[in-house]
Amino acid sequence: MPATHLTQQAAAYLHYLCHELPTRRVGSAGNQAATAYFRQVVAGFGFHTDVVSFDCLDWQCDHARLTAGDTTFAVQASPYSLGGRFAAPLLAAATPAELAAQDPAGHILLLHRDLAGEQFMPKHFPFYNPEEHQQIIRLLETKPPLAIVAASRPGSALAGGLYPYPLFEDGDFNIPSLFMSEEEGQRLLPYVGRQVSYDVAARRIPATGENVSARKGDLARRVVISAHIDSKLGTPGALD
Fold first, then answer.
1. Which residues of 56-90 are buried (b: 16+ CB within 10 A; e: fewer)?
2. CA–CA gap between residue 72 and residue 188 (Å, rounded)
């Protein structure tokens, strides 16, 4: 088969996955269409396919708003966050020590500076979960605020170049949260001690995902290739 044809065919696959199915987050309709497409394509090359289904969460957000008086802030809901509507005093913490010394109950909590320098690993992520992340999560869950606003700092390698980026992207973390840029966080800081309004309409949706495997030929000698087919929420690229 000519190399030009292979290149064109590969480009067609990528175009379909990234342009026609850009929303391929696990559990979504786009993800299910992508796995079905993969099964169809590899079956055409004589591969036998197997599918293992698993339970997961999809997520939907209708709106996210944060206001203080007549001032509106540019915010986004953290992926997989619960929704919520609160009007409460604003509290801020910049370091783990500041967070440990405060009681955020009944407040909307702004995390900034040292506490907003990188994404926190999901609570039950088994492959990488540093102790400092677990410590912050424990502090937040021991004395939970009504909601969290995270002013993410630029340059986090864990965020994959996104800015602003969510500090929390975890379906097991049950404190509602928004995120904003560091610059928006500086605009919000003067409102510490004053009432702010937090309004997010979002929900978690029980869903099902699929892992698809394909095999062909003598399995005694094999070459194994693996790849992501899901996408990170808001991007056409792989989850990580």
1. bebbebeebebebeeeebebbbbbbbbbbebebeb
2. 10
Residue 97 and residue 74: Cα distance in Å, rounded? 28
**Among 161, 126, 113, 120, CA closest to 140:** 120
Residue with tokens 């993969």: 38
Residue 6, SS3 per DSSP: helix
For residue range 126-143, list pLDDT tens digits in order.
888 899 999 999 999 999
Q: Stretch 76-94: mean pLDDT, rounded?
A: 98
Q: Is the pLDDT of residue 110 over 80?
A: yes
Q: Kindly list the structural domains of the chain, giving each domain's residue range(s) and its CATH number in brackets, ordered by start.
A: 1-235 (3.50.30.30)
Q: What confidence tens digit (pLDDT) does each residue in 119-130 have? A: 999 998 888 889
- Give, rounded to a whole angstrom, the gap between the first and last alpha carbons of the chain: 33
